């Protein structure tokens, strides 16, 4: 018995390994997608290990060293990206700011994704009254002025990382529900689901074994694109002063600080913005590869044309 | 047709009522409006008098009923911060926002359509690739930062354009471009992809075979068919600009529109003005949605409203 399971394990492992390899191999074909993916992996590592990598404490002030330009613009190598109005090291703040962006992005996508997918599954599978009620709520909430409502809620509840996550999650679940419901409706009519129902499979088994696998590709792409949107939204809220609050660091917050020094210290407003833009751009480049990769029709088009994904 | 309009108006009313309910639940039940609007050192008596003056001590349903009854008559109460009717402030600032959104949408549409069409004519060419790359970059850049970079370049370094406030047309240029760019990127991508799909259809081949000039086929036939998703997206962009992006862009450029006012209302802890702004913006969004429905019908007669 032991040897049989060992064999199974090895097969599973090699299959896994070759799957990773073919993923990277195909990704390598699309240079933009590969660069985007590589940047995100690096960013994730940097965000996780921020206290070990950052040269300074992001909050430690040194008024003697305030408003020093970056090393490439006449500054010293002690502060590679310069210092801000309180003498805090900009590089260290960027590294720690990556943490907040990643945390908010991942948490919001997880929360709103889970809720939206469950709602979409229920609506699509149950149909009838339940479906029309859920979709009516979705349609109504989509027409809400989301950012304004988020501002109202944050003003009343008080801005902080958890409230920002909650508000953005409440604002973003509808799109997952729509995509999930659409896919469920089309898969439900398929013969294999009908067959499973005739055999007597319970709804739960049908949903998890037969319907959910069809959703993994579109939901993965959607989640990644939403991640980009959330990173931008968190930055905007923090810029407006209703997101992450000092002494915590956030890229949007740092742009807001730099705004007051735009006339003589251009790097304070420029550098955190570049960090946001590069992150979102990487996500978008990776997602545009993934979207084509996950869609058999698009893949066929691409191989027929014999060129990389654009 | 009549039934369709009635249904859409009904749906729009649900949206407006829903937004109002959310604002009421959040401000009255989750938060304490008196604590939010009065300074910390206010006494218990002052708080009670304040709550009574604004009617905040009455049951929430009564307050809600009064707000709706007032809103129908465009009476949203007095702004605490400016000591004048909230609607007066909105009537002053809303046209500025609409002007800004109109200018930016004209820029976005006028630039993105020819760009997307040219790219679609030769997919994979350098023009196409640089357009796709530019669009991707445009929609990845945070809007508030884009505005600040434009200020840095045109206002601080080159000193060509004013960087904030309202005045002549020069004040409009930078905020309009900032508001337009991400929308321009998304629209150009949409024009490109729907034109590529359309140009691969049989009738394009047929009209060429019949000797029709290619530019005519592209602009008159293919573009007309491809324009539907473009109109949908433009509508979405207008709504998103009014209900969200304008807040950020107006704050960056101190453009005194409705979004700028919303942030000021928050800073001044003026909930009366804030809830009035949210209500009016929600109503405007619903109206634009209705207008878009008729625009589809006008552009594509195949669409049956009903």
Give an account of the 3D structure:
The complex is a heterodimer of chains A (310) and B (306). Chain A is an all-alpha fold and 310 residues long. Helices cover 76% and strands 0% of the residues of chain A. Chain A contains 13 helices and no strands. The longest helix of chain A has 37 residues. Chain A is globular and about 75 Å long. The C terminus of chain A is likely disordered. By secondary structure, chain B is mostly helical. Chain B has a domain of 214 residues: MetI-like fold (Orthogonal Bundle). The N and C termini of chain B lie close together (6 Å).
SS-derived structural category of chain B: mainly alpha
Task: Return Rg of chain B in Å.
Answer: 24 Å
Number of helices of chain B: 12
Largest interface: A-B, 45 and 51 residues
Q: What's the helix-strand series of chain B? A: HHHHHHHHHHHH
Summarize the structure.
The complex is a heterodimer of chains A (310) and B (306). Chain A is mostly helical and 310 residues long.
What attributes does this structure have?
heterodimer; A: 310 residues; mainly alpha; MetI-like fold; 13 helices; 76% helix; 0% strand; disordered C terminus; B: 306 residues; 12 helices; 79% helix
Write the layout of secondary structure elements.
The complex is a heterodimer of chains A (310) and B (306).
Chain A: H1 2-29, H2 31-48, H3 50-53, H4 90-126, H5 128-142, H6 146-157, H7 161-172, H8 174-188, H9 191-199, H10 203-239, H11 251-259, H12 266-294, H13 296-305
Chain B: H1 2-30, H2 33-37, H3 44-54, H4 60-72, H5 86-121, H6 126-140, H7 143-157, H8 170-199, H9 202-209, H10 214-253, H11 258-267, H12 271-299
Helix pairs in contact in B: 1-12, 5-6, 5-8, 5-10, 5-12, 6-8, 7-8, 7-10, 8-10, 10-11, 10-12, 11-12
């Amino acid at each position: 018995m032991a040897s049989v399971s060992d064999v199974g394990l090895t097969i599973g492992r090699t299959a896994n390994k070759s799957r990773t390899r073919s993923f990277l191999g195909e990704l390598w074909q699309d240079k933009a997608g590969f660069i985007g993916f590589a940047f995100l992996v690096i960013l994730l590592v940097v965000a996780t290990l921020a206290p070990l990598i950052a040269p300074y404490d992001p909050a430690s002030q040194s008024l003697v060293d305030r408003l020093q330009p970056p090393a490439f613009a006449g500054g010293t190598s002690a502060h590679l990206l310069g210092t801000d109005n309180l003498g805090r090291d900009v590089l260290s703040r960027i590294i720690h700011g990556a943490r907040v962006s990643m945390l908010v992005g991942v948490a919001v996508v997880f929360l709103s994704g889970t809720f939206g997918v469950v709602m979409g599954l229920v609506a699509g599978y149950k149909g009838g009254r339940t479906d029309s009620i859920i979709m009516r709520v979705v349609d109504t909430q989509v027409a809400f002025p989301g950012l304004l409502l988020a501002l109202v809620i944050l003003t009343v509840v008080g801005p902080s990382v958890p409230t920002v996550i909650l508000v953005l999650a409440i604002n973003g679940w509808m799109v997952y529900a729509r995509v999930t419901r659409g896919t469920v409706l089309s898969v439900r009519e398929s013969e294999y689901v009908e067959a499973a129902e005739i055999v007597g499979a319970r709804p739960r088994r049908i949903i998890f074994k037969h319907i959910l696998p069809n959703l993994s590709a579109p939901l993965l792409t959607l989640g990644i694109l939403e991640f980009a949107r959330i990173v931008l939204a968190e930055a905007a809220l923090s810029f407006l002063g209703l997101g992450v609050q000092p002494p915590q660091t956030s890229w949007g917050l740092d742009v807001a600080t730099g705004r007051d020094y735009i006339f003589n210290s251009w790097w304070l407003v420029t550098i955190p913005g570049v960090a946001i833009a590069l992150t979102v751009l990487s996500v978008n480049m990776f997602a545009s590869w993934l979207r084509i990769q996950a869609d058999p029709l698009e893949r066929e088009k691409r191989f027929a044309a014999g060129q990389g994904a654009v | 047709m009549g039934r369709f309009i009635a249904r859409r108006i009904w749906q729009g009313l649900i949206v407006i009522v829903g937004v109002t309910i959310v604002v009421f639940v959040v401000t009255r039940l989750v938060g304490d409006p008196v604590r939010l609007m009065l300074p910390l050192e206010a006494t218990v008596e002052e708080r009670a008098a304040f709550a009574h003056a604004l009617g905040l001590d009455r049951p929430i349903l009564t307050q809600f009923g009064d707000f709706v009854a007032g809103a129908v008559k465009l009476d949203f109460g007095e702004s605490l911060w400016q000591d004048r009717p909230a609607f007066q402030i909105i009537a002053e600032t809303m046209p500025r926002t609409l002007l800004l959104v109109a200018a930016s949408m004209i820029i976005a549409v006028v630039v993105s359509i020819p760009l997307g069409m040219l790219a679609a004519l030769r997919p994979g060419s350098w023009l196409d690739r640089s357009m796709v790359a530019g669009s991707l970059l445009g929609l990845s850049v945070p809007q508030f930062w884009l505005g600040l970079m434009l200020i840095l370049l045109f206002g601080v370094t080159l000193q060509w354009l004013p960087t904030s406030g309202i005045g002549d047309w020069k004040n409009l240029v930078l905020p309009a471009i900032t508001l337009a760019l991400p929308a321009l990127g998304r629209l150009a991508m949409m024009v490109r992809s729907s034109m590529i799909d359309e140009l691969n259809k049989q009738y394009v081949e047929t009209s060429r075979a019949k000797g029709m000039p290619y530019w005519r086929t592209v602009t008159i036939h293919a573009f007309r068919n491809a324009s539907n998703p473009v109109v949908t997206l433009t509508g979405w962009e207008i709504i998103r600009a009014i209900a969200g992006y304008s807040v950020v862009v107006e704050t960056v450029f101190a453009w005194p529109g409705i979004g700028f006012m919303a942030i000021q209302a928050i800073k001044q802890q003026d909930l009366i003005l804030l809830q009035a702004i949210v209500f009016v913006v929600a109503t405007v969004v619903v109206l634009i949605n209705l207008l878009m429905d008729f625009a589809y019908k006008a552009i594509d007669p195949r669409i049956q409203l009903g």
